[in-house]
Design a protein that fits this description.
5 helices
Length: about 90
């Protein structure tokens, strides 16, 4: 494995330090996209939501519930909950 320059290490460190915030922002964007999407695009977005919540270590039972209902308003509630933890 190749060593990284000091500049590259700083970028990598900042990414992982802000990982939760980055994923939270992505989920926020997905809510709007879900309201506008249709068909296969909407299914793909829900898959992305599931993987993002998993990366944020959100409880699996809650993810399953969200995925069974696929209701963007539930995702909005989850975002409000996560906002308190991430901020």
């Amino acid at each position: 494995m190749q060593d990284h320059s000091p500049h590259q290490r700083k970028i990598i460190d900042r990414y992982y330090r802000n990982f939760d915030r980055i994923k939270f922002e992505r989920l926020s964007e997905l809510v709007g996209d879900l309201y506008l999407a249709e068909g296969k695009k909407k299914e793909k977005l829900w898959t992305t939501v599931e993987s993002t919540l998993t990366a944020l270590e959100f409880p699996a039972s809650r993810i399953e519930h969200l995925m069974s209902r696929k209701d963007p308003t539930l995702l909005t509630g989850i975002l409000k909950e996560l906002e308190g933890k991430i901020s």
